[in-house]
Amino acid sequence: MVEMLIGLHVSDDERYTEYRRRMTPILERGGGSFGYDFRVSEVLISQTPKAINRAFTIRFPSDEAKESFFSDAEYLAIKLEYFEKSVQSTTTIASYVSEPHPPSLPMLG
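Below the sequence we write its predicted structure tokens.
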């Protein structure tokens, strides 16, 4: 599985939420998914001058599936209409090959 950790500076939450709603079926159709998703309130250390207020992981079954998703015409139209107008900057923090995540364990305490 190919997984990417992405940081964004989202400037329009409503439009970005609509972007995610519209693109997720395309992502899932190709076997992709989101692993984690965070709203970030404070960045303590960064390797970029770009602001980050959202961080998430996005997963694909292979590099080919990732490339197919990001070049899909329907996805590109959604990205142009919603992502480009709601996100000020994008930072790829990491990209790596990972094992499928095991089911979550219940919280102890």
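The chain has a mean pLDDT of 93.
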